[in-house]
Amino acid sequence: MINQTLKVFVTVVDKKSFTLAAESLHMSQPAVSNYIKKLEEELGVTLIDRSGKLLKLNPAGEIYYHYANEMIGIDERMQHLIQDLQNESKGPVHIGASYTYGEYILPKMIAQLIRRHPGIKPDVSISNSASIIRMVDSHDLDIGIIEDEERETDKNLNITRLIRDRMYIIGNRYTPDSLDNKALGAATWIVREDGSGTRSYQDQLFSSLGINPETITLSSTQAVKSTVTNGLGLTLLSHYTVGEELKTGSLKIINGESTELTRYFHLLTPGVKFHSKSTRTMVDMLNEDSIENHHFES
User: Fold this and answer.
1) Which of 57, 124, 227, 279 is most enclosed, with most CB atoms within 10 A?
2) Main-chain dihedrals φ then ψ at residue 272, nearest 5 degrees
3) pTM as predicted
4) DSSP β-bridge partners for residue 237
5) If you write DSSP's letter for every residue of 163-175 in order, what string do you get?
């Protein structure tokens, strides 16, 4: 269990007030002040600058605050994991996914998870691949799913291939079914932002075709689809994202037989020894249809 001094110090800093910290902790203001005084005496250094109207951390205080927060977080995770051993799968699981998987595939997986384990409470973040990698590495996410395999080895993570994806050149209903490289290079392309897994494959396509077209950058797959539907250019997208538009005919695949690109969604978990039962349950469900079985560190 984390000692009370750590909690008092962090609360004082977060509230920027001894008085507000005392109210939050249900303590008297003198008691809070005494905790901080004894802490500074024990360390032999002042942590908080009290000279101005607002409390301000000095460099020593910044260090202590950073690691105190980290220790409190570790303590909370430890207690949660120990309680997990005695209970069925329930509680939060923090899942992050890049846009394609998160918006078009993950909702069905979450619905399936809740039907099987109603006590689990998914907390979902949707962002680009680079952001998901950072959040898994910093333990802000229990599970990450990305669509970009180029940067995956930069972090100390458990990484496996999840499912296969196919990507195609997409145009609107009036675009010819086939375009040569000259026409592709002359077209405007609607692309995703840097950091997006889809963007990295769009760039790979340009390189393989030997073209350097004019581009318009948008940060949402839905915005990309709407822009292409309105005739402003071509794009490269996953078949998962355009299923409905292909059925209605508002979008179509261009050069389907010659320019299909294959990629894989990747499943990431932090490289730590212990994971919550909720996390393990979600990963077990993903493993049912995955290309590679995802194992945790033993």
Assistant:
1) 279
2) -120, 165
3) 0.65
4) 168
5) EEEEEEEEEETTS
